[in-house]
Amino acid sequence: MLLVLCVLGGRSHAGQQSEGKPPSQAVVLQMASEAHSPRERLLVALALDDTTSARAALDEKDFPPALAHWHRARLAQAEGDRSGARRQWKSAWKRWGYGSGERAALAAAFDRQYVTGMLGAGALKDARKARQAPWGEHGDDAVWDALGGVLALQEGDVANAILRLDGAWRRADRLLRRDRVFAHRALAHLAGGDAFSAIESWLKWTGNLRSGRGRLQAWEFWNAHPELLEAARSTHRRSDVARWLAGRNHRQEALALALEAWHSGSGKEARQGYLIAAEQLYRLRRHRELLALLQEKAPAGLDDEERATLAAYPWGVRRRQGASTEVAEGFDQVSRAFARTRRGVEAQWEAAWMWELTGGLEEAEEHFLRYADEHPRAPFARAAALRAIYLPYRRGEFELTVKRADQLARSLGDGPEEAAALWLAARSAEALGDSARARVRWERLRAGHGDSPFLGTAAAVELPEAVDRVGERLYRSQLRAFESLAEALELPAPLFEPPEADWQEAQALLDWGFFEDGEIRLQRAARLRGHDARAALRATALAWAAGRAARQAREGWWLRRRLKKRTELTEAVDVATWPTPFAPMVLAAARERGLPPGLLWSLIRRESFYEPAVVSGAGAWGLMQLLPTTAEKVARSLGERPPQRPEELLGPGVNLRWGSAYLRQLLDTFDGDPFEALAAYNAGESNSRRWKARMGEDDPPAEMILRISYSETRAYVYEVMRGWKVYERILRDGEG
Question: What is the per-residue DSSP string for 507-567?
Answer without folding.
Answer: HHHHHTT-HHHHHHHHHHHHHHTTT-HHHHHHHHHHHHHTT-HHHHHHHHHHHHHHTTT-G
